[in-house]
């Protein structure tokens, strides 16, 4: 297995400047700068009184809605503002339709930045630097989060929830009995652990990409994880935003590196055919067989909802987790791939600003954290409020990240991120096309 990228490749011009570029891309934007909204005057409290009611549109319902509203009860009582939250499973289309019809909500919670950017270009969203203390907000967030909401120099949304994808899960008791290290510093060290597992007669990895029409999205995560680690956040940004072609040599090299891991015989349970046919929700299950059929799964924090019920009931004792390690010779720092709900403002007045200030602060979410299933994007959030030790561990992993980056396929045009990229990953894993061929095809089909 080729586990080290050549020094020439790692230190290409773009990658070598990654660390230097990190500080520059997170500056407080110029209020008179670009973006679809043009110049917007700084908000002054008292100039635009509210009505006492603020409407919010989001994508989550059920228990998540209940936990969200519980997190707003004290705020509503103290402020005198009534919050009306509407969940919509077809949020992406609904928010576009409502804005187009002149019936935009006061605030919308975007689960992906793409739709937010579309509306920002139309000038319907107020940039956050108009009404929030940008520097104060940025100082408490995990580095890089605000950059995920930046368009042409302005930031149009601020996170109120985080998802963390860069996690390696393992069956705690069996893993510890095997004597495997639980804090590998690099991917190369993790590969040594997987070699030890194979020597012990255990298949290291379980993986599943099956998701009906969305089959392949898990594969895009693998590429994104390696792009961040091997080439760093700045090159990652250039790739996602198409400032560099999809078939650039850095991308092709990463495909090959991921192939070394997933396609090497004995590394993944059932081989490449099983990866395609196994639903992503079932990939963790072999870890909890007795004895385990595999030891490792790479997946986001949401995956715990698919663990066996008895494991979920005793997570802290049954499950271990650590951050997907860095790449030796690559980006100097721990990056985290993830996502989150971005709060955006359509109606600017005293009441909506107060709600946005609370939603996007490190004081929001205590009740949701206690209920479970929620992570704060703030490093300064009180982690003692989380309902389990493993959730606190994940929050700590994210808080200590050198850089956070949004899932790349969510930022790419839909025809790519939810189309040719997914399809290309399946063809590549099955061996129907080489790394170069898949990257060429995706580049050639990128929307003009």
UniProtKB/TrEMBL annotation:
Keywords on record: Signal, Transport
UniProt-annotated stretches for the region Disordered: 29-49
Leader sequence segment: 1-21
Domain of life: Bacteria
SUPFAM superfamilies the record matches: Periplasmic binding protein-like II (SSF53850)
Pfam families listed in its UniProt record: SBP_bac_1
UniProt xrefs under PROSITE patterns: PROKAR_LIPOPROTEIN (PS51257), TAT (PS51318)
Family, as annotated: Belongs to the bacterial solute-binding protein 1 family.
Name of the protein described by the UniProt record: Alpha-glucoside transport system substrate-binding protein
Organism: Brachybacterium fresconis
């Amino acid at each position: 297995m080729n586990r080290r990228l050549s020094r020439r490749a790692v230190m290409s011009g773009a990658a070598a400047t990654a660390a230097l570029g990190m500080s520059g891309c997170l500056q407080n934007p110029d209020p008179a700068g670009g973006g679809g909204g043009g110049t917007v005057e700084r908000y002054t409290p008292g100039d635009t009184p509210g009505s006492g009611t603020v409407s919010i549109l989001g994508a989550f319902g059920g228990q998540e809605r209940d936990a969200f509203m519980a997190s707003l009860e004290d705020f509503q009582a103290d402020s005198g503002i009534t919050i009306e939250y509407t969940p919509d499973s077809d949020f992406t289309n609904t928010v576009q339709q409502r804005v187009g019809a002149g019936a935009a909500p006061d605030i919308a919670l975007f689960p992906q930045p793409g739709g937010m950017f579309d509306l920002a270009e139309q000038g319907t969203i107020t940039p956050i630097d108009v009404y929030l203390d940008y520097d104060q907000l940025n100082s408490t967030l995990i580095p890089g989060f605000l950059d995920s909401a930046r368009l042409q120099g302005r930031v149009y949304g601020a996170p109120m929830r985080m998802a963390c994808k860069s996690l390696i899960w393992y069956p705690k008791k069996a893993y510890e009995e095997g004597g495997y290290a639980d804090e590998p510093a690099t991917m190369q060290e993790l590969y040594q652990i997987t070699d030890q597992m194979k020597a012990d007669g255990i298949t290291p990895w379980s993986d599943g990409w099956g998701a009906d029409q969305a089959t392949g999205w898990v594969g895009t995560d693998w590429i994104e994880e390696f792009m961040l680690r091997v080439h760093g956040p700045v090159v990652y940004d250039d790739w996602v935003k198409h400032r560099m072609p999809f078939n650039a040599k850095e991308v092709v090299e990463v495909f090959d590196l991921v192939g070394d891991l997933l396609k090497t015989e004995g590394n993944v349970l059932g081989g490449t055919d099983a990866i395609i046919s196994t639903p992503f929700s079932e990939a963790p299950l072999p870890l909890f067989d007795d004895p385990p059929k595999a030891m490792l799964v790479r997946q986001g924090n949401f995956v715990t909802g698919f663990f066996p019920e008895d494991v979920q009931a005793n997570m802290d004792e049954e499950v271990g987790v650590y951050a997907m390690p860095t790449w030796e010779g690559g980006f100097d720092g721990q990056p985290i791939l993830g996502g989150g709900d971005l709060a955006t403002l359509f109606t600017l007045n005293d009441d909506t600003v107060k709600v946005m200030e609370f939603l996007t602060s490190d004081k929001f979410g205590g009740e949701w954290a206690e209920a479970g299933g929620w992570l704060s994007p703030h490093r300064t959030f009180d982690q003692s409020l989380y309902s389990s030790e493993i959730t606190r561990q994940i929050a700590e992993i994210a808080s200590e990240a050198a850089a956070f980056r949004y899932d790349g396929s969510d930022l790419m045009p839909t025809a790519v991120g939810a189309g040719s990229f997914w399809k290309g990953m399946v063809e590549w894993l099955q061996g129907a096309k080489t790394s170069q061929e898949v990257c060429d095809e995706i580049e050639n089909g990128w929307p003009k």
